[in-house]
Amino acid sequence: MDELKLYTYIAVFGSFGVYFAIAWWARAGSTSDFYVAGGGVTPLQNGMAIGADWMSAASFISMAGLIAFLGYGGSVFLMGWTGGYVLLAMLLAPYLRKHGKFTVPEFIFDRYYSKTARIVAVVCLIIASLTYIIGQMKGVGVAFSRFLEVDYGLGLGIGMMVVWVYAVLGGMKGITYTQIAQYCVLIFAYTIPAIFISLQLTGNPIPQLGLGSTLADGSGVYLLDKLDMVVTDLGFKEYTTDNMGGTLNMFAYTLSLMIGTAGLPHVIMRFFTVPSVKAARSSAGYALVFIALLYTVAPAVGAMARLNLMNTIEPTAGQNMVYAERPQWFKDWEKTGLLKFEDKNGDGKVQYVADAETNEMVKVDRDIMVLANPAIANLPNWVIALVAAGGLAAALSTAAGLLLAISSSISHDLMKGVLTPDLSEKAELRAGRIVMTIAILVSGYLGLNPPGFAAGTVALAFGLAASSIFPALMMGIFSKKMSGKAAIAGMCSGIGITMLYVFQHKGIMFIPGTSFLGGLEQNWFLGISPNAFGAVGALVNFAVAFGVCKLTGDAPAHIQHMVENFRVPKGAGEAHAH
Amino acid sequence: MESNQSYWQENLRLILICLVIWFVVSFGFGLLLVEPLNEIRIGGYKLGFWFAQQGSIYTFVGLVFWYSSKMNKLDKKHDVEEG
Questions:
Q1: For the range A338-347, what are the long-range contacts, defined as Cβ-Cβ under 8 Å and sequence gap of 24 or more?
Q2: A248 shares contact with chain B (CB less than 8 Å)
Q3: Burial zone of B13 (CB within 10 Å; 0-12 exposed, 13-18 middle, 19+ buried)
Q4: Phi, psi angle pair for A514, to nearest 5°
Q5: How does A2-37 read in b/e, with b if 16+ C-beta sit within 10 Å?
Q6: Over 90: is that where the pLDDT of A202 sits?
Q7: How far apart are CA A512 and CA A506, in angstroms?
Q8: Which among B16, B22, B64, B66 is the top mutation candidate for probing chain A, defined by the most A β-carbons within 10 Å of its own β-carbon?
Q9: Which DSSP category does B26 fall into?
Q10: % helix / strand / coil in chain A, to the nearest 5?
Q11: b/e burial code for range A146-174 (CB count within 10 A of at least 16 → b)
């Protein structure tokens, strides 16, 4: 076994051992433990757990790669996925915590006094969470197959088993404490390589500052200016100004991601675990600090990875790399099919340019940037091993949070709330565990046989959360008079228009060829891409809900009284079921 | 109840201030005004680009903590603290 593999085994299985130990220590004894960790999580702990819950395989692996190739356009992910926490901290978290229930659909049920509303919320939640989970499961499989060279399916199976142990045993309590450990692993694994690379390129160990510094090669040229120059010389768009489909599209995209972030149930749920309203407010702040640590490093990772890639292929202008002398990481990724070279002009050298006719790097998958980055920069093997453990931590922690959101919405909202209200606490706890086991098996199956629409699903998850859950919650808190009927009408029309738009441009259920308006940019409404349409869906939701409320009358007095009550912190207790 | 009303009004005003700042640093500086701001530079960063990829995130963090501490004071002032 070579050194890198040995280190990777130590890092991956060492971290798994820690998760198991925590799971054993934090077993759940009651439904309160299982759903909200007994309500005893401190804001700092909750902030870290939210960080791990939120930062998925997509944040860890894909985001910096996206930024590397989108440049300035990639800012929509940075602002969108952090700005949502401002909305969450001010518009939702404190009031939902004050109301003090276990799940998001349960709040919707109380506020809109309607089982229909609760079921609509459960359906949105399950679709959004399941689509999201497929990506995590794929991430686990890829990390295993690339770094440990085990079969994709076996890797997925190991990942499922690990999540099963701590999520089913510990519920929210086990998940919370493992997420804290996972946050530490993932942030360490993300920043260490970034610090090394920043130091190499600019001499500044802080990546956030390195990105704005001059290069360490003595030329005195700023890193970003050099990058702009290198990419425009090869015909690509300028890195720092390339604005992905125009300002309006970026605007709508950012807004959709922000609203969607604030409406994702597995994140909202984490605010039910803290002991007070005050703690809910401050844990949003801590969460954002922990998230910002990764999100402000990501643009540096992206830009530096792009520059390193360009420099490897063309060390000095006009002097291209000879294909036969390519480095080891290049060969490794060629094997996976994610990197492809075709010697079009037969000169044995690698030309990487924007023009598709002469470009010889026919495939550079964006997702390999973070994983390949340490190898491209010649970092020591233990750093590369860390990245594998970090990617797994990111995927597992998010999967666990999503699984809990799904299982609680089924065992608590559908079974206890609607179908079998006389379920005892013990039986509900058992039901929760069984549902979670089933959810793990289903998501594992979907990870192994990703449905054809998997690629488009993240857009759907954010679109659903943005166009249904967020507006319903926000109106429930800020508009006393908003009635149940109006909220249901709003949710249904918000989802309806968002799904219609996504499907009409990307195909019904993402089946190619069924898109009746075509995926082409010129057919987009005002140039807004389907991924960015959640914000429009949310606007429609608000408009319809207020319209229907005007026509059909206000919410009854006791509901308005309840709203007044959860607007003030006084009298908050632990989160409870009834 | 009287006090709860004015508590809620003050909270709404605070939220509005925060959301204006939230909007200005991200959608304003990072997107709508990015071109004129890019004329200004801090180190190797063009200012608009910096707001879009760094500055807006730092501001968000500050905003959430500021809101949280303001609200704690407001809770005390209107005597609506928990416990």
A1: A338/A363, A338/A365, A338/A367, A338/A368, A339/A363, A339/A364, A339/A365, A339/A368
A2: no
A3: exposed
A4: -100, 5
A5: eebeebbeebbeebbebbeebbeebebeebbbbbbb
A6: yes
A7: 7
A8: B64
A9: I
A10: 75, 0, 25
A11: bbbeeebeebbbbbbebbbbbbbbbbbbb
Structure tokens given for A274: 């803290």
CB atoms inside a 10 Å sphere around CB A380: 13
Cα–Cα distances in angstroms (integers) from residue A314 to residues A230, A300, A375, in the given order: 9, 21, 17
pLDDT above 70 covers a percentage of chain A that reads: 93
What is the predicted pLDDT for the residue at B81? 83
Whether the CB-CB separation of A177 and A22 falls below 8 Å is answered with: yes
Instruction: Read off the pTM.
Output: 0.91
CA distance A314 to A242: 22
pLDDT category at A508 given cuts 50, 70, 90 is low
pLDDT in tens, A370-390: 888 888 888 888 888 888 889
What length is written for chain B?
83
Domains of chain A: which residue ranges?
3-309+379-455
- Using CA atoms, how far residue B76 sits from A440, A570, B72, in Å, is 45, 10, 7
* Nearest one of B61, B77, B65, B69 to B3, comparing CA atoms: B77
Q: How far apart are CA A335 and CA A3, in angstroms?
A: 20
| β-pair type (B45-46, A363-364) | unpaired
By residue count, chain A amounts to 578
| Architecture of the domain defined by A3-309+379-455 | Orthogonal Bundle (1.10)
A203 touches chain B (CB under 8 A): no
Task: Report the distance separating Cα A282 and Cα A286, nearest Å.
Answer: 6
User: How wide is the angle at C-alpha A465 spanned by C-alphas A459 and A469, nearest 5°?
Assistant: 165
Contacts of A132 (CB under 8 A, 6+ apart): A56, A398, A402, A457, A458, A461
**Which of B35, B43, B82 lies closest to A212 in CB terms?**
B43
The partner residue sitting opposite B80, judged by closest CB among A213, A254, A569, is A569
Query: B8 contacts in A (CB within 8 Å)?
Result: 567-568
- Write out the two tokens for A225: 């200016």
